[in-house]
Design a protein that fits this description.
The protein is built from six helices and nine strands; from the N terminus they run βαβαββββαβαβααβ. By secondary structure, it is α/β, with parallel strands linked by helices.
């Protein structure tokens, strides 16, 4: 019987910010950085990147019902005091915050279907991350305003590390270090939270079936050209050998 090929992990980028509002983050640029990071990675074949463009609040449950992603990345704007903002139904290009409690209840339903990581790429999302982490294995949020450059630097490095087989915990640590090295404000860097009894260093986006163990080369003894086999040395023979 032929073993079916493994199923790639899905990363869903929800682009919920309105481009008509001044100061809105460039969600398209963030998506392109994530796409580039995955495309050139060692295990790019183990990941599938999808996007939910111009996302309204009602678009999210409809998309999740069709299949839960392994990673849900919100590229959006936050609201001081909590709440992600989604596009409104009118044609004016407006935004409105959604309920943190409602979002938590919604995403909880898809944890058993494979949702492992939620990335809140938006300002003022620390409290929401804390709330989601009661059930979602890993959640990344930011407790203060973060610049577009800081978001791009962090996201680029995070997904590069994940697509090279690093764990969620290790990828986050690498991405935070890189963003700080590039000049990001240390008080505005994203933070990782985990659900109870979840160890982020043990969670990988790239499954074990994709990560091949390193090849071990057998070590051969290095000699000087002579045989390593021991030989018996013949006994000396004289004119009167002793018995």
């Amino acid at each position: 019987m032929t073993t079916p090929p493994p199923t790639p992990s899905v990363i869903l980028v929800v682009q919920a910010a309105s481009p008509r509002i001044p100061g809105t983050p460039d969600t398209g640029a963030e998506y392109r950085e994530i796409h580039r990071s995955i495309t050139h990675a060692q295990y790019s074949h183990a990941l599938t990147l999808e996007s939910l463009q111009a996302a309204r609040a009602r678009d999210l449950p409809d998309r999740l019902i069709r299949g839960a992603p392994a990673v849900l990345h919100f590229s959006a704007r936050g609201t001081p005091g909590g709440g992600l903002r989604f596009l409104t139904d009118d044609d004016g290009g407006g935004e409105a915050p959604i309920s943190d409690q409602g979002l938590c209840k919604l995403l909880t339903e898809f944890v058993t279907e494979g949702l492992r990581l939620v990335v809140l790429s938006a300002c003022w999302t620390s409290e929401l991350a804390h709330l989601l982490a009661t059930t979602v294995p890993c959640v990344i949020g930011t407790g203060a305003p973060i610049t577009d450059t800081g978001c791009l630097d962090y996201s680029r490095t995070l997904y590069t590390a994940l697509a090279h087989g690093r764990s969620i915990g290790k990828a986050h640590s690498i991405a935070v270090g890189a963003a700080e090295m590039y000049g990001a404000d240390t008080e505005c860097l994203p933070a990782l939270r985990t659900a109870p009894d979840v160890y982020a260093e043990a969670l990988h986006l790239v499954g074990a079936e994709y990560r091949t163990p390193p090849t071990r080369t057998p070590i051969k003894p290095q000699g000087s050209g002579f045989s390593w086999r021991l030989r018996k040395k013949p006994l000396p023979r004289g004119p009167n050998p002793q018995p």
